[in-house]
Amino acid sequence: MILLNNQFVSRDEGKVDIEDRGYQFGDGVYEVIRVYNGKLFSLAEHLERFKRSMVAISLKLPYASETLTDNLKTLVEKNNLRNGIIYIQITRGAASRNHGFPNNTTPVISAYTKEISRPIEALNSGISAHLVEDFRWLRCDIKSLNLLGNVLAKQEALDHGCQEAIFHRGERVTEGSSTNVFIIRAGKLLTHPADNFILNGITRRYVIELACQLGLPVIEKSFTLNELLTADEVFVTSTTQEVMPVVKINQSTIAEGRVGKWTQLLQNAFESAITSP
Ligand code: PMP
Fold it and tell me: Where is coiled-coil annotated (predicted)?
């Protein structure tokens, strides 16, 4: 089953108009929520960010947010999802194609679930990343459906045999194509501040809290390409990638190609959090 507006229908039954503004303009926002053991992880934080993204593009939920929360939980139950994700998006709806906001359209909400497992192998061995100039717009804090910049960067990384693209604006490292980037230098954790240049990841915030609990000082400050390439440890975070070690960036090997000590501690803390009842 999928959720379409306020109804549960089969995927075949779920129809969206060809002039939906999400389809034509990417005029909408989305969230990806992790489900561990049948439970939605950090649901409140995801819904809070979803609302923030909606406000940023002047969209309003067409029903109460409590209804949306109930609908998402029901969707997980209906689909017997144990481990996977919920994808949810809202668009400005269907209207005759014109750039300006149409009058009187109803936003279209759609959500579906997908089973996925944790990327255990990569979490143990780390991934390689490829550097890409950040050619995206200046509102990366909005979780917008417009992902073309991210898509092109990720493909460039894949074409270079890497699993993630790390964006930089000139010398300054921003974030990954679908992750936030962290480095460890001299016993401190550094990550780009949550401004308009990055998406403030739910996993990013979670990891910052875990680091504080572990006594690892956190500095939310941007760092340079050189600081990235000569860091003691590098990892990226996201809802599906969790705390993912980066062991190679372009031609530079990081942490002798192994999962670093702090990265491992943060991975352990994260794993405890998602497996606790
Ligand atoms: N940055 C970008 C550009 C992303 O697409 C994502 C994943 N949605 C993230 C960061 C990580 O966010 P989260 O931890 O909320 O999944």
Answer: none
Ligand 1 proximity of 42 Cβ (cutoff 6 Å) = no
- Residue 277 predicted with pLDDT over 80: no
Using CA atoms, how far apart are residues 271 and 21, in angstroms rounded to an integer?
39
For the stretch 222-257, pLDDT in tens is 999 999 999 999 999 999 999 999 999 999 999 999
Please give the CATH topology (third level) of the domain spanning 120-275: D-amino Acid Aminotransferase; Chain A, domain 2 (3.20.10)
Q: Tokens 């979803």, residue?
A: 50
How far does the centroid of ligand 1 lie from the alpha carbon of residue 89, in Å?
15
- ipTM (interface pTM): 0.99
**CA dist 231 → 216, 219, 246 (Å):** 15, 14, 11
Q: Is the CB of 181 within 6 Å of ligand 1?
A: no
Q: CATH number of 2-115: 3.40.50.300, 3.40.50.10490, 3.30.470.10, 2.30.30.40?
A: 3.30.470.10
